[in-house]
Amino acid sequence: MGLTFINALVFGVQGNTLRALGRDTPLNQFLAGAAAGAIQCVICCPMELAKTRLQLQDAGPARTYRGSLHCLAQIYRREGVRGVNRGMASTLLRETPSFGVYFLAYDVLTRALGCEPGDRLLVPKLLLAGGTSGILSWLSTYPVDVVKSRLQADGLRGAPRYDGFVDCVRQSYRAEGWRVFTRGLASTLLRAFPVNAATFATVTVVLTYARGPEPRPDGEAVPAAPAAPSGSGLAQPSSL
Fold it and tell me: Which residues make Cβ contacts (< 8 Å) with residue 117, sequence separation at least 6?
């Protein structure tokens, strides 16, 4: 439910930010992606808080929450707005740079792979670029995600253990060593590739055939209409 709104927000903000920056450069791709990542935290943080609490609660009649909205309502009733946004700082620390890497990597990879309309390998190339971008994005900030998840689960069973982000990092490292910050990485990357491959490929193909190609020289000012990579007729997700 949350990802529907998140993806709409992310691709829209990224495209508008890139046009506002004026030029389609690697730095601007990163900045536009980072802006999109930061803004979508207003949805992402409460959504992941509810997901974490639901996954950790007891099953059967002993369960505390009936669903995502009931979970958020209960948290709001007990802790207010601050409780619903628990882990916001760590979510911002994760999402801002990771989405910058996400869009930068996709832009670089689609150019390097020569993704062109009419190429019989277009869809496989887009899937490869999207999936690889998702993996690089997660690798760039995964330790922050571990800390965020621990903060959002803190207090679910018993008294809260952590005083904040730094305290969580300190206690986690002291108790379990540096490997704690890579826990669950393999399963996350296995999920990241197909999810992001499908997301980027779908958005790019739909834009390409719905709006048509608009190739432009490298470094030229980004037009109001949908833009494509240098030397390519392929519409990019940033054209949203």
Answer: 208, 213, 233, 234
Residues ≥6 apart with Cβ < 8 Å to 29? 18, 100, 103, 104, 107, 238
Cα 53 from Cα 230, distance rounded (Å): 45
pLDDT digits 0-9 by tens, 69-113? 999 999 999 889 998 998 899 999 999 999 999 999 999 999 999
Q: What is the pLDDT of residues 38-67, one digit of tens each?
A: 999 999 999 999 998 888 887 777 788 888
In this structure, which amino acid lies at residue 56?
Answer: L
Dist CA 150 CA 144 (whole Å): 10
Can you give the chain as a three-state secondary structure string? CHHHHHHHHHHHHHHHHHHHHCECCHHHHHHHHHHHHHHCHHHHHHHHHHHHHHHHCCCHHHCCCCCHHHHHHHHHHHHHHHHHCCCHHHHHHHHHHHHHHHHHHHHHHHHHHCCCCCCCCHHHHHHHHHHHHHHHHHHHHHHHHHHHHHHHHCCCCCCCCCCCHHHHHHHHHHHHCHHHHHCCHHHHHHHHHHHHHHHHHHHHHHHHHHHCCCCCCCCCECCCCCCCCCCCCCCCHHHC
- Identify which of 96, 68, 102 has the alpha carbon closest to the alpha carbon of residue 192: 102
Closest C-alpha among 112, 148, 150 to residue 129: 112
* Residue 175 pLDDT > 60: yes
Whole-number Å distance between alpha carbons of 44 and 126: 25
